[in-house]
Amino acid sequence: MRVTSVSETDPTVSNPVIPGFFPDPSVCRAGDDYYLACSSFEYFPGVPLFHSRDLVHWTQIGNALDRPSQLRLPPDTASSGGIYAPTLRHHDGRFWLIVTNVSGDGNLLFTATDPAGPWSDPIRLPGVHGIDPDIAWDDDGTCWCTTAGVGQIRLDPHTGETSGTRRQLWSGAPGVKAPEAPHLYHIGDHWYLLIAEGGTERGHGVSIARGSTPTGPFEPCPANPILSHRGMDHPVQNTGHADLVQGPDGSWWMVLLGVRPGGGTPGWHVMGRETYLVPVEWVDGWPVVGELSTDMAAPPWPLSPPAVAPELRDDFDAAELAPQWISLRRRPPEDCTTQERPGSLTLRARGESLDDADVTFVGRRQQHPSCRVRTLVDVTEGQGRGGLAVRLDELHHYSVETSAGQVRVRARIGPLSTVVASRPVPPGPVVLRAGTAPAPMVDARTGPDLVSLGFEEPDGTYVELASLDGRYLSTEVAGGFTGRVFGMFASAASAHFDWFDYEPLES
């Protein structure tokens, strides 16, 4: 999904390297290939997986947790619950993925020979406590699992059994909250313990310590935090939750999460926490992080953009949904299928509205500040009702839906829910449309963007029914850890979607 701008004198690449709601990146290298995993929270399938040859251009190759036996998210799983902070590693010829399911199953370990899948059923880790688990192997093959806090225990990754007691290693800077996202590395003569601290909001940062063994004791870097934008006037904020990796030429790089706030004060980010890339140099045995730029100098090796541009339109001709499509908590095949009406996605209603945790929903992440989304929906059979939504969670969403010859725009903002506008339409399928564009700056309360919702006449003319303030679909308003998702839903009987089109626009 990357657009690379390259000139002969000053080649640059766009950052974030994976835009949109793809937080908590963990990266590993296997030969000439790089693989990266992200958190997925209440969405199914879980843990999106990406592949790259150059650390810049990333292609989603699947989702590690794509079967109910791997990912159990009960209907009452809270938004921003579910799957937290994976660590992805390649060791002894296999890929290892360790995650936390905070909605019931605790810490889990999965393995695969091919990161595109299939991944194993989970190895349960009842002796591993805390979120954000990391795994690392020392020179004699002992596996160590380190979790937020930051504590560590010895782990048998084949059985899930732990031995010994959990030892506290390091808690970051004195008085700084939330030491988490630990990653342990053996680089040169030292073992390095990289952590996030300060919370995943504006105080977020990356700190590091080193020791002579994987169990410490650890000496903090005198320059900690080695990366943070707290208190800075920078377009990327909340920087943290990092992972180190070597580039093709042996240089060092770091992937991390950050957000792009917009609008007035305090600034609102709407696409969630995104994955960024930044260079790293080693000075006196410590990593020194380079400038994080949204227009970054290209790495000093040949770039490998995908041979085929990613599909932004889906006509639902395939038997299975592409990996970018996500649903809420589960996706029973009887409620979501491309088999009932060839060339269409059929959704059968479970919940009665987007306010319900168990609503039938299929969406994709917003990845551009300005975009236009369209879908052709048919609800003419029976008492169907369905539509197109811009979702952050059950309490914060906008939608345009059709039923019984009417198109309606609904808005849910916290405890308030209302029909904003409605219009009759002729019988038959209708093209519904939603989009985002920057909001004109008026004062400090101006939101980051405007969300437009409406439908298209048979001749293609767009009828806007509402233009709503985008800040109410932001993390700063709603809370939590996710970002916006554009998706299709059914809230009564069935709805058939002939196609779905996502179009990035110039800001």
Describe the structure.
- This protein is mainly beta.
- It is 1% helix and 48% strand.
- The chain has one helix and 40 strands.
- The strands form eight sheets. The chain has an eight-stranded antiparallel sheet with strand order 5-27-30-39-32-33-34-35, with no helix packed on it. Strands 26, 28, 29, 31, 36, 37, 38 and 40 form an eight-stranded antiparallel sheet that branches.
- Strand 18 (205-211) and strand 19 form a beta hairpin.
- The longest helix is centred in the last third of the chain and has 4 residues, at 475-478.
- It is globular, with a radius of gyration of 23 Å.
- 49% of the residues are buried.
- Mean pLDDT is 95; it is low at 1-8.
- InterPro entries: ConA-like_dom_sf, GH43_C2, Glyco_hydro_43, Glyco_hydro_beta-prop_sf, Glycosyl_Hydrlase_43.
- Residues 313-503 form the Beta-xylosidase C-terminal Concanavalin A-like domain.
- It holds the Pfam family Glyco_hydro_43.
